[in-house]
Amino acid sequence: MKIAYVLNTYPQPSHSFIRRELQALEHQGVEILRLAMRPSAAALADPQDQAEAARTGYVLQSGAGRLLAALAREAAAPARFAQALRLAARLARASDKGLLRHLIYLGEAAYVKQRCAAAGVQHMHAHFGTNAAAVAMLAQVLGGPGYSFTVHGPEEFDAPQALSLGEKINRAAFTVAVSSFGKSQLSRWASFGKWDSLKVVHCGIEPERFAGPAPLPQGPLRLVAIGRFVEQKGQMVLVNAMARLVQELPDLHLSLIGDGDMRPPLEAAIAAHGLQDSVTLTGWLAETEVQAELDRSHALVMPSFAEGLPMVVMEAMAAARPVIATCIAGTPELVVQGQTGWLLPAGDEDALAQAVLSLAQTPHPQLNAMGQAGRRRVLDRHDSAAEAAKLAAHFRKAITG
Fold first, then answer.
1. Which of 60, 137, 200, 395 is buried most deeply by CB count within 10 Å?
2. Which SUPFAM superfamilies match (predicted)?
3. Are residues 376 and 387 in the same domain?
4. What domain range is 314 assigned to?
5. Is there a single domain that holds both residue 60 and residue 154?
6. Residues 6 or more apart from 18 whose CB is under 8 A from it?
7. Interval 18-62: pLDDT, tens
8. Rounded to an integer, what distance in angstroms lies between the CA atom of residue 147 and that of residue 122?
């Protein structure tokens, strides 16, 4: 099989799950053409991301002239071109991005369709139900191969009508959700006749990366939180909780791994609370460095307000670390209260602080048992090779009918 992956910005430091999916598919013999609209504006710290960037074709870097030329070639089939133009206009009316943006998507779609034809691509797959899925859908209408796409959330669930999510699902060969919760949300927008095309394929971890997890450390409690510094990740709640926790646990330390627009407010809050010695902002780290931070920690904390199915939780569980997480979206499908960690309401500083105190008071052997239970659970449910095999089977069925 030859599949084109149609992506918006790729690779990104926070999207390592896409890279793992691609690599797992390739290990199973699937040939993949990587087509992204643009490269990441963030520096790529991980050598694997750097290698992926070198293998990816960037549509917008081809220049406006080539996109216009691609559109002109598609106009030679006036019926199909008119259909795609009408669809682009309909998507524009539903969204807040306007007609010009959607005409650019149409130009990208023409370019993608022609690249797929030249490469012998049999099917297109997009990640996220945003503009990449729109480009794949328009490329199909222009005469390109069929498409599918993976929805992660929460962005798609926040604006399903503006994204024309229902239309994208209904035209797709199949649509992937990364959790049962995600599938339930897609069912709200899919036609009843398309419910059978909604598939659950989990994001996966590579078991070999976690073959020998480091023992749970002794000594003062160390926590780690990983994610983009954006409002939905809830790091400010965690910083505010830390201000209270250090009164009872003066040796407590938190590493915040990531970066983003919320960094200045987080730095200001850390300074205002006098937490400079208790909280470290590391920036983005390579996978080996993230693993080292997990090895030094007693638990991962994920205080998010909105999520899909968090990869960082999977990785912490694979590293045999208990997890403190908000009870949202697909997270309860990963974290089992009292068995692999603690679940708490989103935005509740009191509950978050209490969960950390409970962690601190839990005997070391019990914490170790929780970590091992989480490891068994995630290795059983989220092996990247097994999940890639499911996805490859869906591709094969879409191609052969």
1. 137
2. UDP-Glycosyltransferase/glycogen phosphorylase
3. no
4. 207-381
5. yes
6. 5, 7, 10, 11, 127
7. 999 999 999 999 999 999 999 998 888 889 999 999 999 999 999
8. 9
